[in-house]
Amino acid sequence: MSVLPRFLFIALTVAAALAAGWVFRRIAVAVTRGELRKALRTAPVTACFGILVIALYVAVAMAAPLIAPYGENEVVGDQFMPWAAPHLLGTDNLGRDMLTRLIYGARNSVGIAFLTTLLAFLAGSFLGLLAATVGGWLDQVLSRMVDILMAIPALIFSLLFLTIFGTSVTTLIIVIAVIDTTRVFRLARSVAQTIVVMDFIEAARLRGEGLARLIFREILPNAMAPLAAEFGLRFCFVFLAISALSFLGLGIQPPTADWGSMVRENAELITFGDITPLLPAGAIALLTVAVNFVVDWMLHRASGLKE
Amino acid sequence: MANIRSMIARRLLLGLLTLFAISLIIFFATELLPGDLAQNMLGQAATPETVAAFRKELGLDLPAHIRYLNWLWGALHGDFGASMATKRPVAELIASRLEHTLFLAAYAAAIAVPVSLFLGVLAALYRNSLLDRAINALALTSISFPEFFVSYILIVLLAQSGLFPSMARIDASTTLAEALYRSFLPALALTLVVTAHMMRMTRAAIINLLASPYVEMARLKGMSRMRVILYHAVPNALAPIITVVALNLAYLITGVVVVEVVFVYPGLGQLMVDSVSKRDFPVVQAVALIFAAAYVLLNLTADVLSTLTNPRLVHRK
């Protein structure tokens, strides 16, 4: 392929994506009511495309066993078969159906990344809000611990701990969750600190509200917008980190169908000019782009910026 | 001037303290294992005698703080002990690879920093135009791509046709020109990964300043937009730009791990990944310490440099 058709192909893909986003927005505006409808109507096309992609991924992940033509680890033919029916995307290095593995990957890769993000997020925002509300020595101790943990590059930190505890999915989830807890902590603490000094918190304290009520009923609702955007961003980082580790063979272990490891297992095809191994990598990239688009829109809305 | 010197001294001290804390974490993380290292490595089936012998070989019979001091003292003298897998000294394994990794990171930085600063200024100059939107969308996309995806796309696009080699084999006998040619693809992959972030931050830092009254004044005097940005906005935006450049250079240091594996580049990252799967503790600890030290050093430099670019901080009474 020369340069021009390739460029045309990229332009067409982008145009198709934008068109899909636009159509999705029309449909979404038509079927929703109230606040949601108002928000969707002003959403940029990119954000609508993002929502559409995320919804598709979730649907595929939920319905994986129903839509996948074969079993997750079923060997259905020779290794590295070309793209032809009945194996639409060919087979992988062990003769398993590529399309099936991709579909199950949505469940495994995204599921594990989501779980990890949730863990990191719950721990990080709770500790961050706690540190800002209580202040004093607790804040000092937690903040200094986080400072030190953050001084080590994330990938290096996870590699170190995977060496020590061995490579397994549980270790992976815990290690990545700990790393990202520190980042969420920083944000939650700084957001909460601007809220804690406000008058209504002072009033709540004087009224004798307990610590738990203060955190969950007074501070948390006011910190929700930046935290929600952070959740999206964190998910991207966690997802990319887990994929990178799986690609290195240190993350999600075979035979689980996972996009990162699928790239690694089939990488040799690339040297023959076959782009099949790029599909799982592309699936990772597409979801991250989609989440980023939505987060961008959320941040824009939260900040009330009209550039 | 005395102010500055004491500031730099304070930062250096803080950096040393951080490094010390990191070395503690890296060393004592192994103590988190249930049982001990020797038992863990040999498995439950090992006889008590073999475990005891292995323990002695690893020096585990000494108390932990003595082992730590020995390790730290050795590390400060370039002696990281012996690899558990190959029994060769870790320093010997690391030496040439460290050089390669630094070369690759510097190569990528030499491309990425000028390009992203240029694009950032351009995007700020023509903000909200089609060019700006295109650059922004491209930036957002490349942030979202995993490093290995970018690398393999480059291989498909540029190595398939035989333009560049897809495997970056480099050793002591490779000449500089040859090394630059062979490691072009990994360097380009790293560049693509970090450029987007640097560019977006440069754009944001400059646009932040464009709302200030003195910029408006300059515009009202009839100065061209280009001149306003280059002579008035950029000098004041230097601090955030330096910070983000340093942050990304630090990111390069860890980003090399994945890229090195894709391109079979003989660097520290690949050594580390191999050692993690073999659970070769001394090597992993040594490489982690080196990466972390480089990371801390870069952040420290950024801190000092961005203070130096602010006259209000330099000439504080």
Task: Give a topology summary.
The complex is a heterodimer of chains A (307) and B (317).
Chain A: H1 3-31, H2 34-42, H3 45-62, H4 64-67, H5 98-134, H6 136-150, H7 154-165, H8 169-196, H9 199-206, H10 211-247, H11 259-265, H12 278-303
Chain B: H1 2-28, H2 37-42, H3 48-58, H4 64-76, H5 90-125, H6 130-144, H7 147-159, H8 176-182, H9 184-210, H10 213-220, H11 225-262, H12 268-278, H13 281-308, H14 311-314
Provide structural commentary:
The complex is a heterodimer of chains A (307) and B (317). Chain A is an all-alpha fold. Chain A has two domains: 1-42, no CATH class; 47-303, Orthogonal Bundle (MetI-like fold), CATH 1.10.3720.10. Helix content of chain A is 75%, strand content 0%. Chain A contains twelve helices and no strands. The longest helix of chain A is centred in the middle third of the chain and has 37 residues, at 98-134. Chain A is globular and about 70 Å long. Chain A starts with a helix and ends with a helix. The mean pLDDT of chain A is 86. By secondary structure, chain B is mainly alpha-helical. Chain B folds into two domains: 17-76, no CATH class; 98-314, MetI-like (MetI-like fold, Orthogonal Bundle), CATH 1.10.3720. In chain B, 77% of the residues lie in helices and 0% in strands. Chain B has 14 helices and no strands. Chain B has helices at residues 2-28, 37-42, 48-58, 64-76, 90-125, 130-144, 147-159, 176-182, 184-210, 213-220, 225-262, 268-278, 281-308, 311-314. The radius of gyration of chain B is 24 Å and the shape is globular. The termini of chain B are close together. Chains A and B meet through helix 6, helix 7, helix 10 and helix 12 of A and helix 1, helix 6, helix 7, helix 11 and helix 12 of B.
